[in-house]
Amino acid sequence: EYVNIAELFNYILDRFDMIIANDDEPKKRYTIRREIPQSQIWVELDTSKFTQVIDNLMNNAIKYSPDGGVITARLDDKQTEVVLSISDQGLGIPAADVNHVFDRFFRVDKARSRAQGGSGLGLAISKEIVERFDGRIWVESVEGQGSTFFIALPYEPYELDDEDVWDD
Ligand code: ATP
Ligand code: MG
After folding, report:
1. Could you read off the pLDDT of 107-163 as tens digits, one per residue?
2. Taking every annotated instance into account, which residue ranges of this chain make up the domain Histidine kinase (predicted)?
3. Could you tell me if the CB of 102 is within 6 A of ligand 1?
């Protein structure tokens, strides 16, 4: 279906804001900063699959950050594609591992990751989903400083024609 990507992104992030707002003793606190312009970018994708991808990136940003971290969610209109990003101030990923985080079952630190829970499939599944929508997913990270995950999704500029205008 065609969805307004800024609206859907905000809606998914709202749930993460609500989770933290409604938890009196959260295991991990976080603040989400949004840099999401009001826009009318219509992207063809599957809402529930896309939600799964953002959920995974947000859960990773929380999981691999210290308590009280700031997570920045951005949307950039690049005309023929829209680029979404989620940045954290967390552990970061060692340079030698950065090309492997999208591999099935890959985890940077086996012991640490096992303690955190999860299976190491989240990013592999996210990559499959994003590529099914002809998009790209990648990461830039500095160990000890944080990570930014990017998703680029192609879109066709929406043009209003006669058939889109109707009377009530
Ligand atoms: P799952 O998502 O299946 O519950 P997972 O989070 O370990 O488990 P992925 O989401 O695929 O698996 O991530 C793979 C690995 O990449 C993680 O184990 C972690 O080592 C690293 N990683 C992912 N996101 C981040 C991040 N934001 N900061 C630091 N490391 C990360
Ligand atoms: Mg994960």
Report:
1. 998 766 666 777 889 999 999 999 999 999 999 999 999 999 999 999 998 666 666
2. 1-157
3. no
